Amino acid sequence: MTDVESVYNLLLAKSFQEELFSTPTRRTEKAGTELVKDCPFCGKEGHLYASTVKPFYHCFSCNESGDWITYLQKTRGLSFLEALALLAEKAGVKIEGYDEAKHVQKTRRATLIESAQRHFIASLRRDKGREVLNYLRNTRGYSEADINSMELGAYTDREELKEVLGKEGFTDQEIQASGLFTAGLGVSHQLAILWRDVSGRGIGISGRPSLPAEELKVRGRQKYGNAARLEKSKAFIGLERIHKSKTKKILLVEGQLDALLLNSREPTMNAVALGGLTVSQYQLQALEDAGVKNIIISLDNDDAGQKATEDLVKSLMDSSIHLFVARLPEGIKDLDELMRSNRKEEAESVEWSRWMPERIFQKYQTESDIGYREALDELSLIHI
Fold this sequence. Notes:
Elements: H1 4-13, H2 17-20, E1 29-31, E2 34-37, E3 48-51, E4 56-59, E5 65-67, H3 68-76, H4 80-91, H5 100-123, H6 130-139, H7 144-150, E6 153-154, H8 158-167, H9 172-176, E7 191-197, E8 202-208, H10 213-219, E9 225-226, E10 235-236, E11 249-253, H11 256-265, E12 271-273, H12 281-289, E13 294-297, H13 303-316, E14 322-327, H14 335-340, E15 348-351, H15 352-362, H16 369-380
Parallel strand pairs: 11-12, 11-13, 13-14
Antiparallel strand pairs: 1-2, 2-3, 3-4, 4-5, 6-7, 7-8, 7-10, 8-9, 14-15
């Protein structure tokens, strides 16, 4: 069954916010990724801000805010199901039997997750966040502009987080059910990274230790620790950028920080992180719904990364999206190293139908007839 997040994703791809928040008396103004409107609730001119990358609005005069269903309920007097049916019709899909209580609960959790990340971002500049900030600046070499653009935070005090969320009106039950108190998160894993669902709303937090990858291996620590209930198969990092992009092309990567850094330093780049090596059917549908036309896969330049690239190509090659594979320069192991080097112009991308035969023939001893036939046999199983 289609969910509300998928309906919103489809509508964002169609810039439906232009229609939803249109007013006959005022020309649409834009401020970054937001539309600026007169508020229909308090009447204040130019104080209602409607996002163009997620289904959310907020008035900076009367503090009225919510998602598009809430807006339709309050401005047109529609019931939840009537508002949802209207949006589904505009999106060109059907959605039946959806539970209003479930939607309210998910929306509340998204708001809580986003509130927590705002707190983590603020904590990064305080004394408790100094270790995380030094790691970003000195170990990873991020500039102040990078750190701000990437919206990274420091989760350093669980009790403080509970207090902050409580003051924002969340109940103890909501706070405990948020998944933000998973073992390690906010303790050993303090660098906080926000994951979003396909509509752009917060769905969970990943934490990372403030240690180089080599030291993580020595200490036997996991690179990332995720909040409980974070469904990465229904989440992305960076997908919201496609809704304001003219190219409708994404660079699909594994690393969360890689995607955020690329998007910070390359304004025309739409890097999307999976946090893994596979794409779920839900994620694939979300990419197609968002209007993605071209995908460039860019995983690590080692044997494991190339094997994962091969598997990813096989899982995506029958989709409606045009598929390419990135080639990193010789000696560059991954995107993070590429971004630190002066060799970015050496990277290129080729169509999967060219990359795959080359990949397969590299796996066999094609100097011999047997090896050559084995390569041809494997290639024959792929419909190029």
